[in-house]
Each structure stands twice: as structure tokens, then as C-alpha cells.
Amino acid sequence: MAPVGTTAAELPRGRYWFAFALVTSLFFTWGFAYGLLDVLNAHFQVVFGINKLQSTLLQFAYFGAYFFFAPLGSIFMDRYGYKKGIHLGLTLYSLGAIFFWPSAKYEKYGGFVGCTFVIGTSMLAVSRIAKTSYHLSPCSGCGLSCLEVAANSYISVLGSPKYAAARLNFSQGFQGVASFAGPMIGSRWFFQGKNATTLDTVQWVYLAVAVLGLMLNFLFYFCDLPEISGDALAEEMHDAGIVSDEEPFYKQWRCIFGWVAQTCYTGAQVGVASLAVNYMSEQGVGISEGKASQFLSYCQITFTVGRFVGVGILHFVDPALLLSFYAVACSAFSLGVAFSPGKAGIGCLFTLFFFESICYPVIFTLATKNLGRHTKRGSGLVVMGVGGGAWYPPAQGSIADRNTRLSYIVPFTGYVAMAVYAIGIVISQTLTDGFRFRTVDEIAERKKTITEREEGGQTTPDSEKGAKDDVYVERV
């Protein structure tokens, strides 16, 4: 195990890429679970005879787990490290998936909701590590939340801050690959023949999901995953004259407002996908539920392509500036979905999925930037924002029971909140350092400036250390 003070810059290249690849595999795991969720939402309406609002209990359980378990996951990882946090998340994830079996066999909707809650909690921990979807099963929701806290946080700090947003978009791209596999499986196995009105295939699918979780847990047990500590990150920042983490956590406004933006965006994203099958099948263009499920997988493919396209763009364009553009586009096309009939509305839906692609990882990296010793706690808070997915779908479902198309006004409000956050950061950066179009590594740039001043013979009197004219001190 690497020393507690390890940073990404101190890792050998081979060890760096091994850690990156293994943690990235976690995104595929919860992407598959999330992809199945929206298909099951529509399937349960048929099997259990429930309305759209009642079916969103799955989303409420899955994403509500993030709200409650993410802070606990961050505290656990702060004390025991990323690796043990991943083990905890994968264990809960597998337990939640296993308990889908009796829920499906005895056709208990409440059992599905409980299992979904458990699965969601596990994902939370992983996302916090890397960065740093609705059956009722407390284990599943809790497991995913734990995984997500770990994975998102870990990928964010595993390398140069300049490319943190691009790096996290790349890893989360594999979540997108898995998420469109879920609807494709659903269209093939849940809506065909006898399976359209039974739960026979659901139990087998989730048994396979449980086995996948156990296999990953086994691999991580034998992996020498380097630990990247908040103290090491803080020291790296302080060497560059950035001491924003010296302020208490409750004054880390960029992170706190990032949590608000993440809550609103995630709620909007989940609401859009949760009723997509209903939306497309009700547009009066001859699309059945089975075909709509297949189209949802195409929407997820569009989302995934957009995420990998975003990786390339983020290597050159400032993340806050790009997020501002994408947030405005999401707001516009969500209105298009709500007010455009027929094929035009479906076209707006596909475009909306494309512009959603980079939003979650970019919000995460912007909100957790330069947190130093607060990195793990901040990651837990931002992942807690995934809990927004529990509140938006019920609000949208209550409107959808009367008019599915107009219910898409609800996600519009979430995209507007995200746009306000992104544009606010652009304005703040402009006032502090001037307008920037290209992405930069602030730590490297400021270290370079300090070195040039030292080599040029410019010294800083002890009485003036920390003054803005001598060493730039960022206090966000």
C-alpha cells in the first residue's frame, strides 16, 4: 500500500493506469443497474397495475439512498480509506441485487422498493472515490451511493486538476455504455410475450448483477490500490499558494452551491429518463412500449457518445464555460420536449440526452476543486446531490398522470439551477483571474510563477507573506 501522503504525481505510470482502470470498471457496474431502472419503471406499471406516480417509488428509493448514505460513506472513507469504502459499497450492492429474487418470485412491489434502496446506497460510496439507478431494496441503493462517492472522488484526484473533468467524463462514459445495455435487455426480455406481464426474467437478471458485484469485490481485495489522502492534496495546494481549505468546510461556498446544482440537475436527468418510455409511446406516432424501451437505449447511446465527445472538448475548453453552454442547451430542449408534439418532441428528447452527457461529472469536479483536506467530505456532499433523483420523478409523475408531455416542464427547473451555478463560476473566475476560454492547471501555473520569482531574485518578506502581490492566495 502506498504511503498515506501519496499523490497521483508520485505514482509509477503502471500503477497509475492499473488503479485508474480498476476504479473505472465500477462505473460500468452501477450504469447497468441504472439502465435497468427506467425500463422496470414502465414494466411494473403493467405487472402491478400501478400508475406513473406510484411507479416512481423505485426512483425515490434508489436516489433517496444517496441523500441519506452519501455523508456516511464519506465519513467512512475519510477514516478507513477508498479501498474499504469500495468493499462496503460492492457488498451492499450484491446484497440488494440478491434480494430481488424473492421480491420477483412472490411479486412484492414493496420488496423491490426496499432492495433498490440498498443498491443505491452502495453506489454512493463508489462515486465519491472515483469522482472525488428502481426496485425497492435498501441494500442496492445504499451500495451504489457508497461506490459513487469513492469512485468519483478518486478519479478526480488521480491526476492533474487541469484534466479532472475530462478524466471523470471518460470514466463515466463506461457508465453510459452499461446504461444503454439495460434498456436493450428490457426491450428483449421484459416486454416480449409472456414476460410482458410477469417477473420471471427479472430475478435471473439481478442474480447475474449480484455475481458481477461479488467478482469485483474479489478483484479489489487483491488490488494494491494507492491511497490518496486529503493531507497530501492540501500540501500540494499550499506549495502553490492556494490555501482555500484553511477556511472551515461550511465556508466552502463553491462546494455547497455545487451540491445544490447537482441536486437539481440529477433530479432533472432522472425525471427525463424515468418517463421517457411513457413519453415516446404516447406521442401518437405508432411507438409501442417495447419499441419505446428500445428507443430509450438509443437515447442512452446518444448520451454516451456525448460524454466521450465531451472528453475531447474538455481537454481544451474551460469546464465552467462548457457547462454553461450545455446547461442553457438542456433548458431549451427540455422545453422543446414539453411543447413539441410527435416526432419533433422525440427529436428534442434525443438532443436533450446529448447535452446532459457532461453535466454530472463537470459539476462534481468544479464543486470539489481545491478542497484539500476537505476533499472527501466535499465529495460526499456533492454525491449526496444525487438524492435529487428521489424528489423530481414523483413531482413529474403527478403531472404525467394527466399529461406526460407537459410534465417535462419539471426537469426544466433543474437545468436552470445548473445554468445559474455554471455561469456564476465563469463570472467569479473572470473577476479573479480574467476571462478564460481554455482549461488551465492552476496549481502548476502558480508553482511556475513562484519558481520564476525565486529564480529572478524576488524574495517575499516574512511580514508580507500571503500578500496578493507576492504569492497568490485563493480564497473561494
UniProtKB/TrEMBL annotation:
It is found in: Cell inner membrane. SUPFAM superfamilies: MFS general substrate transporter. Keywords: Cell membrane, Membrane, Transmembrane, Transmembrane helix. GO terms for molecular function: transmembrane transporter activity. Its main location: membrane. It comes from the Eukaryota. InterPro entries: MFS, MFS_trans_sf, MFS_TsgA-like. The chain crosses the membrane at residues 16-37, 57-76, 85-103, 109-126, 204-222, 344-366, 406-428. It holds the Pfam family MFS_1. GO terms for cellular component: plasma membrane. Residues 448-476 are annotated as: Disordered. It is a multi-pass membrane protein. This is Major facilitator superfamily (MFS) profile domain-containing protein. It comes from Antrodiella citrinella.
